[in-house]
């Protein structure tokens, strides 16, 4: 396959430019009238018969998703069918039924879907009368008909719902159902994206089987009238992500080509679904390679879906058009608005992008859809397929298309029937149905996405289903909504502003944006040493700092001479008073400057994070961003934390509490976050007026030296911040110094205890210890959890950063009913992780920090292997200190009582009904750092949120990557002294508190009191 020109377009251009174009291109008055007229006809047709909307529309009519009942039904549908054990199914049903009042949902409509829900939820709830409270009502209901009967009813209802949204459980069923229908069909194999090679193979086989089956019953109509299949690229590759581009481009195009050839052989339609924005460039790379293959020459069934909510939609159409031209044939192009809008917004915020890749106003999406439609209709090499359930969008297309017949509409099965029935009365345009095929169990993700998307207030389908929405509002011209500078949503801040007024968000990079990624990598490549770390005082002789990746020298360190510490501490003590007197605004300004400098010099820091600390690019960038966030957050917190407080008292007395720095702080930081934790500690101590002597980990002095130089450059006096590289002896000497007013430490619990004892043994002033140590962090998974989500979250929590995060998951507790399948899926997904030099973009797991760490971890894994408890171990590359991800089975939760700091996951199982006992067992370990829970049972979430033994609790997500100011980080018990880094209480710990009481009546009397006037 030849290397085609890659797609290139700005990732997130300004919305205002689009709005100006849309407004300039507004249709003529005659066309506007025609569009509104047709839209009105369609809406009136749709609404003519009550209960005739069908599918999702009827469901939304009965159960609004803004109601508790609607959400409960959706949550139940999403999870119930996958729960294998009755005890958990019962708990789930009770949980969801109790969440709402279903008693008024009668089976008034004869639409099967609503009936189904009413059957399980409404009718059975009515059995116990109207008055009862929801929770009492469920208890009553369970008593009357018994939980098993209720369970059967609910399962049956969810199956009926499945039958409504899923076209067929097998392709054969689906084809039988499609037979004789006037619509065209595109079949879709349900399921989440592949996580393992086995998943990818399974999907491949399903697609291939489906294509053969469709071909066998395709009839004789020529393209574009033939049926077809829709293919998700993420289902065909287990690591369908931008960083794995090289691998994806080597492995995926041949697979896709094989499927395309099968479709081509019978001249079927074959469309590639559109997925998330960060995969767009990758998708087009794959597509461009496949369509270039000569075996597909002349075939006009290959299609691409394009999302109009993306700002790059028109560039994508141009690109596909150029491909069609280059290969001299027609392509199909399905225009959709897009199904992942909320996740696109979240991702852009999380990644700190400059702007959103999608529009933030619905009207902008609608207008871009129209603009794309016009572009498509003007591109003779593209066969337009307009997929929408919006009557106004349909009307726009009808008017734009005029007499043309060479296009089709598309709708999703279970949606839009009424609209397309109404269309049939005024247009002969063909309609294709996108028909999901698969077991009802797999319907969940699909169904929930459909319901959430279409239940949203902004959705045409939801508004059409709501009788309160006037017809005029449904068919209103979207141009009116954006005129007058309203291109962006006023309540959706840009990704850089989401934390305002607290702080600016740190700048991130979307790796799916090739240009941004290239610029980032260039900045790293441009980073030049020499990298040297020296103490502020006397130094020992220089040694090389070597990389855990390959043992190469990264730079040099001269460690602190023990004898020099007294002088360094004396200098710090002298620097303290003037620094403490510097206004808080000045100190905060320095931190903000430091954050800006960090971002401006990102290449140097990222280069060091990768070489010296062995981090992947994603981890390195996340750490750099965290460091910048820390600086900005503490800069913002410093003033409120240190503001003087007036306290109450009797008349004639003035009481004030004020804060100031404590003196000299010793900051001792670890190698696992050599920039973020190092800077976080130092920034907190400095901004509160303390002088700092900072001892970085022995393994990572070079990054620390750069960070110190940066703070000096930003304005911190040299004596107020001194670097003291060295081993444990240097830390011990610093702790022992009588001038040390406080120690802030992150590292192992053993060293924390050592420091604690050393401080206690000192004569003289009492010093403060702030310690953040490790944890045996647990995650509990019950049988309601979505296994794909569990796999993603466990893999990230246990193996990201090679498991070298304090927050990392160590102990996974899976409900035994699903343990075998979860473990199998975890192993399958772990096999797809690439281990190696983290400077290679496609590597997921880099080395552990040094040979020592490797040796300990290897020993631990070897012991498990010898004991027959090793479930999985990947292959470590030669050279460097690599430890491949391993999964170890435990007989009991209590068998793991010490932190294993690396990519080693321990798995235990638990029996349904023993949830509380399990939490107690975990608590007995004494640690309390992070805790994860994956469940769909709300009451269980609440119980864990209330009482799980951890400082940071994560529900239905991974348990790493705490964000400054959002998830302040730190634990208790063996895990630390608190308070939490990046939290609102942290800075107070670094402050000394002084009250000043003044007798304001001392010079003769209480003037204020005496001048009180009568009211
Ligand atoms: C046959 C078919 C195939 C499909 N294939 C795909 C596919 O491959 N990939 C895919 O992603 N989707 C696909 N979809 C789903 C499609 O994207 C959704 O059906 C679509 O979102 C609904 O659009 P609509 O015109 O029916 O509804 P409308 O209600 O008119 O529009 C909803 C659209 O507006 C967007 N929106 C809502 N609020 C805002 C806001 N504030 N700012 C900007 N935009 C907003 C929504 O995200 C959504 O895209 C397909 C749909 C059909 C019918």
Overview of the molecule:
With 1015 residues, the chain is of the alpha/beta class. 45% of the residues lie in helices and 14% in strands. The protein contains 37 helices and 26 strands. The strands form five sheets. It has an eight-stranded parallel β-barrel with strand order 1-2-3-4-5-6-7-8, surrounded by five helices. It has a seven-stranded mixed beta sheet with strand order 21-22-23-20-19-24-25, with helices on both faces. The chain has a five-stranded parallel beta sheet with strand order 16-15-14-17-18, with helices on both faces. β6 (382-387), α17 (391-401) and β7 (408-412) form a beta-alpha-beta unit. α25 packs antiparallel against α27 (617-642). The longest helix has 26 residues, at 617-642. It is globular and about 95 Å long. Flavin-adenine dinucleotide binds at residues 273-274, 305, 307, 309, 336-341, 359-362, 364-365, 387-390, 393, 410-412, 434, 453, 458-460, 489.
Provide a quick synopsis of the model.
By secondary structure, this protein is of the alpha/beta class.
Structural class, by secondary structure, is alpha/beta
Residues in helix, %: 40-55%
- Count of DSSP-assigned helices: 37
* Rg over CA atoms: 32 Å
| Mean pLDDT reading | 92
Major beta-sheet overview:
8 strands, parallel, barrel
- Shape annotation: globular
Small-molecule components bound: flavin-adenine dinucleotide
Amino-to-carboxy terminus distance: 93 Å
In the sheet with the most strands, the strands line up as 1-2-3-4-5-6-7-8
Strand content: 5-15%
